[in-house]
Write a structure and sequence with these properties.
By secondary structure, the protein is mainly alpha-helical. It is about 70% helix and about 0% strand. It has 6 helices and no strands. It has helices at about 20-35, 40-60, 75-95, 100-110, 115-145, 155-185. It is elongated and about 80 Å long.
């Protein structure tokens, strides 16, 4: 058929379903994570537990000093939340930077929108973030001595550890999600 004034655009012929695009985007995230280990899996899984290990060394045995010292339990948890937010923003920036240009091009082509990209990113990061947060909360809880004085995990200790883990998970999710949305909204890479 010779091209004429009534040519049909390719997007009118239909495209892949949202589930197949979601699967492809999630697979692409895992492939990139395996290809670059420092920015991918190793950086994502080890950054926060190593940072919390350094933090616990600075706040060694918090229980003995009481709350009057600078190294109190509240200061330790506050610094842990701050380290979590900063690490999540940095890890989120590094993981999105590789997909950013392709996202804007495929969005311009009409393959998918920002919502599907965010859902695919969260499907990719959720298991890794859970592993990271559980390891980091355990390092912070058991390493600093804010748990039970005997060092055993009792029911109250498990509740405290769970609350600490949920708190770290919510801070991580907020910081990484905000970084993700900011990097997707701002198209120029020099602006962020």
């Amino acid at each position: 058929i010779p091209p004429g004034p009534y040519t049909l655009p390719l997007c009118a012929l239909g495209g892949p379903s949202a589930l197949s695009v979601l699967g492809t985007l999630t697979q692409r995230n895992f492939v990139v994570a395996w290809r670059s280990p420092l920015e991918g899996l190793a950086g994502r899984l080890l950054a926060l537990p190593l940072l919390f290990t350094i933090l616990v060394m600075a706040f060694w045995n918090v229980r003995e000093g009481g709350d009057a010292r600078l190294e109190s339990t509240a200061a330790l948890i506050h610094n842990g939340l701050l380290c979590t937010a900063m690490t999540a923003a940095l890890v989120g920036k590094c993981s999105i930077a590789t997909h950013r240009r392709r996202f804007h091009q495929e969005r311009w082509d009409g393959l998918y929108g920002g919502g599907l990209f965010v859902v695919a990113h969260w499907l990719y990061t959720l298991p890794l973030v859970l592993i990271t947060v559980v390891a980091s909360a355990s390092v912070l809880y058991f390493g600093s001595g804010i748990g039970s004085p005997e060092g055993e995990l009792v029911w109250d200790g498990l509740t405290e550890l769970s609350v600490l883990g949920c708190l770290l998970l919510s801070v991580w999710g907020f910081a990484e999600g905000l970084t993700l949305l900011l990097m997707l909204l701002v198209k120029d890479s020099f602006a962020v």
